[in-house]
Specification:
Length: 179
């Protein structure tokens, strides 16, 4: 993690005591500060109609710091789902409002929330998985129709298709990635 720019990468291998192979070059200027974080897991949860997260070390379950506020605005939020982006950060997908909209936020390995996006103006989450390439697939229902959308690392829409239409109400569906 570059502490000055906020950019992150993953250590692919430790070549020797002083050399690492990184997924992305984050060493952009001299005099900047860097940190290496142990692998972490993000747990997303709802409390008092807001969405929060906690980071824990995978090695021993140690809490990595303060509670992360993912969403805390006026409308009630619920049903958060956390998915890895395969680059050290995570997506948190959740529903907001009485006739819920589906939102997505990015949470970095250091707990910084960015990139909050409305994924669907109305809908309920059925399932969400990583796409294996820094993005996600989200299966959701809206007015009895079921949709599958693929989102990139910034939660931008890559495509959305109708899986079941005409009020099929397939809310017990699941998705799996076969590569």
């Amino acid at each position: 993690h570059n502490n000055d720019t906020g950019s992150e990468t993953i250590v692919l291998s430790v070549d020797n005591a002083t050399q690492l192979t990184l997924q992305n070059d984050i060493f952009t200027a001299t005099g900047q500060r860097y940190s290496i974080y142990q692998p972490r897991i993000l747990v997303a949860f709802e409390n008092s109609n807001n969405i929060y997260g906690e980071l824990f070390r995978l090695l021993d379950g140690t809490d990595c710091g303060a509670t992360i506020t993912v969403y805390d605005t006026a409308s009630a939020a619920q049903y958060p789902v956390a998915i890895s982006d395969n680059s050290g950060s995570a997506f948190v997908i959740y529903e907001v409002g009485a006739a819920p909209s589906i939102y997505g936020s990015k949470v970095s390995a250091t707990g910084i929330v960015s990139g909050t996006t409305v994924i669907a103006g109305t809908g309920t989450i059925i399932d969400a998985i990583s796409d294996g390439s820094n993005g996600i697939y989200l299966l959701y229902e809206n007015a009895g129709n079921v949709y599958l959308t693929r989102r990139d690392i910034n939660i931008a829409n890559l495509w959305t298709v109708t899986v079941a239409g005409t009020a099929a109400v397939e809310t017990d569906s699941v998705i799996i990635l076969d590569s």
